[in-house]
């Protein structure tokens, strides 16, 4: 057995106690062997003066949208998608997606994210990038049927099922998949129902956008006289491993339904603020027993992939939404970015405990904005940023050591992504 010892730091335990301990990792199995004092490994990762925390989980993004960062800002969702984003995405190639996903991987590794969910196109290129980067991901082909005839709509949904079947378990098990209909209003209801049934047969979960804006709620209310998530349930959605992004405009009946079914919600506070989609009732969801994770959404509506920002935004916005300064506290957002994200992605990460996946971030506390250190959970939620991350470990492998990436050449990834981004925009 080959081992790695993350030594000399303070460790964030699953109950959010912080203790001085080493973390011993089985590099072959990619799991945590022990959390204790005075451990030794074949290789050491110095965590002196650092906080060792579970690798963060970005539970909803469109990774290759890094190429579209800054092409269109300051618009609401519908206009942004239809006038700016979709016309450019129509010109995307597989090599663009590879370059954009690698850029996203650099950004995520640098900011301590070790797992993400990706809904996009050209899944083979996404999987290649995840494999090369050493990250963990649940990936899928996003289906949009608006503007397509029935054959094209079904071909798009079939592509999503095929990709989910083909890539589940890729990259030594670090890649899992889902059927990914874009939303309840951009996929034809017959297609949604029939291919969700196929996803069940294939044994993969379903990930989709829901209740992001009132424009996604009102047509379903008008047409079916019921809330979108009740309608979604009737179409076969909301099984325990399913997860939806946003859930901004959800009511108490929908929170109860989510809690009952076990389907998760990925809260994307920065994207929801930037597109002025609204304030998700996160405190209500958590009180109802819904599993809530955090996501950045794509880099064109955020505009970065730093989950530390998302923790802070979730705490701040949660208080405004509830009109209560005690709502969505530091402890809650740290849980949402770690264990909550892992639960939503159905991966055994998000906690530092023997037996769990060895997905870790090591945060350097030697900084003015992290001084003094009364409460490190408070610092994670309110003061730290992705650039404070010193080392990142996924599946027992060191992906960043002393701020140097080990799997990707950051400079050439950035150069290639810039070239692809420019050529894409010129072509579109
Ligand atoms: C069909 S692949 C995914 C699709 O989703 C688009 N997208 C990016 N951000 C959002 C968002 O906040 N709501 C809805 N759709 C979004 C992305 O551009 C792709 O086209
Ligand atoms: Zn999205």
Automatic annotation (TrEMBL):
It comes from the Archaea. Binds 1 zinc ion per subunit. It is an enzyme of class 3 (hydrolase). Its cofactor is Zn(2+). The keyword 4Fe-4S does not apply. GO terms for molecular function: 5'-methylthioadenosine deaminase activity; metal ion binding; S-adenosylhomocysteine deaminase activity. Keywords: Hydrolase, Metal-binding, Zinc. InterPro entries: Amidohydro-rel, Deaminase_MtaD/DadD, Metal-dep_hydrolase_composite, Metal_Hydrolase, MTA/SAH_deaminase. Zn(2+) binds at residues 60, 62, 209, 297. Its EC number is 3.5.4.28, 3.5.4.31. It holds the Pfam family Amidohydro_1. Catalyzes the deamination of 5-methylthioadenosine and S-adenosyl-L-homocysteine into 5-methylthioinosine and S-inosyl-L-homocysteine, respectively. Is also able to deaminate adenosine. Belongs to the metallo-dependent hydrolases superfamily. MTA/SAH deaminase family. This is 5-methylthioadenosine/S-adenosylhomocysteine deaminase. It comes from Halorubellus litoreus.
């Amino acid at each position: 057995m080959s081992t790695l010892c993350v030594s000399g730091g303070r460790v964030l335990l699953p109950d959010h106690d912080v203790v001085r301990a080493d973390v011993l990792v089985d590099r072959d199995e990619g799991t945590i062997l022990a959390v204790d004092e005075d451990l030794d490994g074949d290789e050491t990762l110095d965590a002196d003066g650092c906080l060792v925390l579970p690798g963060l989980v970005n539970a909803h993004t469109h990774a290759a949208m890094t190429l579209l960062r800054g092409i269109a800002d300051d618009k609401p969702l519908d206009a942004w998608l239809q006038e700016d984003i979709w016309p450019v995405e129509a010109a995307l190639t597989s090599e663009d997606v590879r370059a954009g996903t690698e850029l996203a991987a650099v950004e995520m590794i640098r900011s301590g994210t070790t797992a993400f969910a990706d809904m996009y196109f050209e899944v083979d290129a996404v999987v290649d990038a995840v494999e090369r980067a050493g990250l963990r991901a649940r990936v899928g082909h996003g289906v949009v049927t608006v503007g397509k005839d029935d054959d094209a709509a079904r071909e798009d949904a079939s592509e999503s099922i095929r990709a989910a079947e083909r890539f589940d378990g890729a990259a030594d098990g670090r890649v899992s998949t889902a059927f990914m209909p874009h939303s309840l209003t951009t996929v034809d209801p017959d297609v949604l129902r029939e291919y969700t049934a196929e996803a069940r047969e294939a044994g993969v979960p379903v990930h989709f956008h829901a209740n992001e804006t009132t424009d996604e709620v009102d047509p379903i209310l008008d047409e079916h006289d019921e809330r979108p998530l009740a309608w979604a349930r009737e179409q076969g959605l909301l099984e325990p491993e399913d997860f939806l992004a946003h859930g901004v405009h959800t009511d108490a009946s929908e929170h109860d339904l989510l809690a009952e079914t076990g389907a998760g919600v990925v809260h994307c506070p920065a994207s929801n603020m930037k597109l002025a989609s609204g304030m998700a009732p996160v405190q209500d969801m958590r009180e109802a027993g819904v599993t809530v994770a955090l996501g950045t959404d794509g880099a064109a509506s955020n505009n970065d992939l730093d989950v530390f920002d998302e923790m802070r935004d979730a705490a701040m916005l949660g208080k405004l939404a509830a009109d209560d300064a005690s709502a969505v506290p530091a402890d809650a957002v740290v849980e949402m970015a770690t264990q909550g994200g892992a639960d939503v992605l159905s991966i055994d990460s998000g906690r530092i405990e023997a037996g769990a996946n060895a997905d870790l971030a090591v945060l350097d506390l030697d900084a003015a904005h992290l001084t003094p250190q009364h409460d490190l959970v408070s610092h994670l939620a309110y003061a730290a940023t992705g650039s404070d991350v010193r080392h990142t470990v996924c599946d027992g492998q060191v992906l960043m050591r002393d701020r140097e990436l080990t799997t990707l050449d950051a400079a050439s990834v950035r150069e290639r992504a810039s070239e692809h981004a420019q050529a894409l925009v010129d072509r579109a």
